[in-house]
Amino acid sequence: MTIEAVIFDFGGVLTSSPFEAFARYETERGLPIDIIRRTNAANHLENAWAKFERAEVDIDTFDKLFAEESRALGAEVRGRDVLPLLQGDLRPEMVEALKRIKARFKTGCITNNLPANAIGSMTGRSLYIAEVMVLFDHVIESAKIGLRKPDPRIYRMMVETLKVDPKKCVYLDDLGVNLKPAREMGMTTIKVTSGAQAIAELEAATGLKLG
C-alpha cells in the first residue's frame, strides 16, 4: 500500500510525555496517583481542559474549573499548577525521522494545544519548536480553530488541506482516544509509547530507514 502522508501529534510524540511530569508532581505533593490524568479524562469532550484547548475559557476560568473537577475526584489541583508540567523535551530521534519522512512524503501536525498566551514559561521553547514546525506542510492547532481531537472534523481538515486519501496516511498519537477517528477514516495508526517503538512502526508503515 502506498503512503502519501504522515501526520503527527506533537506532545508525547515529538516530545516526551507530560505524564511523567504529572506523576512526579503528584508524588512530590502527596496527591492521589493519576489525579491529573483522571481529571483530564473525565468528561473529556467538555471538561476544563477541552474548553481551554478550544480557547473557550481564559486561564483564570480554567484554573478554577480544573480545581473543581479534580476536587470532585478526590484532591484539588489548580489548573495553573498543571500548565508548566506540559513541557516535554523534544525527542531528537523523532525529529530526525520527521526530516527523513518530509523528504519523501507530505507531512502534517494536529495538536491539541493551549492559547498562545496561556503559559508564559513556554516562550523559551518557541524557538526550538519553530524549527520543528517548519518541517510540516500543514499544522492544525486546536486553540486557533476552536476544535480539538478526537473531533473527526479536525482530521478531515488535515487530509483535505494536504489533498491526500486518508487510506494513504499514517497517523501517530500517544492517546488511543485520538487514534480512533483516524483509524475509522482508514488511516494506518501508531500509538506512540516511546521514540524507538514509534520509529520501528513508522519504518514498517513507510518502508523508509529512519534511524
From TrEMBL:
Is the keyword Hydrolase assigned to this protein? Answer: yes
| CDD domains in alphabetical order | HAD_sEH-N_like
Keywords in alphabetical order: Acetylation, Hydrolase
- Enumerate the GO terms in the molecular function aspect: hydrolase activity
Q: Which InterPro entries match?
A: ACAD10-like, HAD-like_sf, HAD-SF_hydro_IA, HAD-SF_ppase_IA/epoxid_hydro_N, HAD_sf, PGP-like_dom2
Which Pfam families does this one have? Answer: Hydrolase
Renumbered to this chain, the signal peptide range is none
Name of this chain's protein: Hydrolase of the HAD superfamily
Source organism of the structure: Bradyrhizobium japonicum
Q: What is the lineage of its organism?
A: Bacteria, Pseudomonadati, Pseudomonadota, Alphaproteobacteria, Hyphomicrobiales
